[in-house]
Amino acid sequence: xxxxxxxxxxxxxxLQMTGAAFGAVGAVSFAAPLINSLNPAKDTLALAxxxxxxxxxxxxxAKTVMWRGKPVFIKHRTPEEIEEARSVEISALPDKQADEExxxxxxxxxxxxxxxxLGCVPTGQKQSxxxxxxxxxFCPCHGSHYDTSARIRKGPAPKNLQVPPYEFxxxxxxxxx
Amino acid sequence: MGSGQREQFDNPVxxxxxxxxxxxxMMQREYGVFPTPRNFNYFWNFGAIAMIxxxxxxxxxxxxxxxxxxxxxxxxxxxxxxxxxxxxxWLIRYMHMNGASFFFIAVYIHIFRxxxxxxxxxxxxxxxxLGVVIFLLMMATAFIGYVLPWGxxxxxxxxxxxxxxxxxxLVGDSIVTLLWGGFSVDNPTLTRFxxxxxxxxxxxxxxxxxxxxxxxxTGSNNPLGIxxxxxxxTLPFHPYYTMKDTFGVLVFLLFFVLVTFYAPNMLGHPDNYxxxxxxxxxxxxxxxxxxxPFYAILRAITFDIGVPFTEIVIISAKLGGVIAMFGAIAxxxxxxxxxxxxxxxxxxxxxxxxxxxxxxxxFIFLGYIGSQSADATLFGIPLSYxxxxxxxxxxxxxxxxxxxxxxxxxxxxxxxxxxxxxxEQKKSKSEMSPEAAE
Lengths: 177, 438
Ligand code: HEM
Ligand code: FES
Known about the structure:
The structure holds two protein chains of two kinds. Chain A is of the alpha+beta class. Chain A contains four helices and nine strands. In chain A, β8 (166-168) and β9 (173-176) form a beta hairpin. Chain A is elongated and about 90 Å long. Chain B has two domains: 36-285, Cytochrome Bc1 Complex, Chain C (Up-down Bundle); 287-412, no CATH class. Helix content of chain B is 63%, strand content 3%. Chain B has helices spanning 12-20, 23-32, 46-67, 75-84, 89-116, 125-147, 152-163, 172-180, 187-218, 237-262, 292-300, 317-333, 335-338, 350-371, 383-408, 418-432; strands at residues 35-37, 234-236, 305-306, 313-315, 377-378, 381-382. In chain B, the strands form three sheets. Chain B has a two-stranded antiparallel ribbon. Chain B is globular and about 65 Å long. The interface between A and B is medium-sized, with 26 and 31 residues. Protoporphyrin IX containing FE binds next to α3, α5, α6 and α9 of chain B.
């Protein structure tokens, strides 16, 4: 049919390459919604705020609430605990953060109770629990120690316990999320 | 497949089918007359055993699925109901539970057999790689299956393992959220895990098919590691190896049945009989025994790798552990190019043999370390140090010792052929005890 063989070949190459490229784009656009459906669904996201009345937590005690399927530690800190958290040399910390950056009101520490190593729940919410070497929380899974600001001090966890987004909607009610 | 000369069958029905779809010809060729080295030892039983275990897992699994519900509020009770109310349900579940363990026993022996006798070497590299793929798929399947009863170990095992992916720089957290379908291991995770747990065994089945196909292209290796040279070196697969495999399978199943009936929870963890509780972590999280060596490697890396004398961290301890753990298996993929020594069988490589047996001991020791808590000690030495040493040997063996031996080990003289070696062995045996010879 054609007279110019070289020209014919490069046209065929072009067609094949465009065909393959469109096929690949098609496959990706088919896979994308399927994979995306595995991300958190709307109702899972909708559950994402929790309100807590903290007036019932006496000084020195703590409460655990669920937020996004995770435990959140709310600790009513004593003046000594606040003092202990603030007297540390920041540069000596593995994950450098001042206590002031981690709390909105010094007496209330609100953190996600998930060890930043591999996701266990540290102990220390009850007075009788193990609190680790720094008087805060202790993760039994691989031995991470957190201080009274829930900052990592010793062990394999790389980061401080995370502070969730929260606000005081009144003097005694916290909205998490 | 399907091409080439067909066999003739006397039975007219078989002949009718075979002339349209030559499955009987294929069976006859691949499992009937298939020429198989005559000198197999019992280590060559474990492929067939693994195959039987896969079938057992699929059959018991499908029946379990008929009684099971994937829902965080119902799964634990559904499994307890299988144990107490469903007719013979306890037996089906115990077969499935212990079947997974015995499947791994068979496959581990099968893999280390392959390493010892050099079965991964040319021309069987792809066969070997397909085997490692099967092993990875099995690990995924078993890990996911362990989540389904939704006990404490299900939840926390899944939490710890899925969190490993958060170590990946930049995209780690998004990957974990995608795996979970939420913000923690929860109902969306359980339902997708069930779907995958149903799917993966059939994917395994397909890869096993390819694995066996590749095997039948190259033919089997054997304890001497030398190629077959003619009919005097081989036996037809049936009846010789169908019988030997049947015998091996029966002995293996005997042990399986003993554990299933008399110690069904021996290999499990009691905490998994406590319903999952997202607020309380068990004091000591351990994976199933077959993951322990790799779990120990994961935990051995407790230090950041960074630029010396600065605070710059290139690989955090967490990421380092994950890389080491996956790397430990990834090395198996490239084994044919790490050990390039021309002699296959360890029988004729005394140095390789020694280092390899140390590796096996090292691997088992890693398993022991993985089963202990992170701060345990042995003879007063922290186990974490030993874990690091054992991990180091594991990697040094593959990355340094094998390539070095490939170049420098002389090895013993190989026998000229399988049948001569077999006859020689017979002769020396009969010289020692004349009555014992036929
Ligand atoms: C490669 C083959 C398979 C392996 C290694 C495997 C492994 C496992 C493991 C380790 C468990 C947890 C056992 C326990 O502690 O209770 C499990 C549970 C389960 N598996 Fe499988 N499985 C396989 C195939 C299948 C198949 C094909 C199905 C069919 C759908 C299935 C359905 C189930 C169900 C419903 C459970 C939950 C009930 C229970 O925990 O006993 N499995 N599997
Ligand atoms: S999960 Fe807390 S130390 Fe590993």
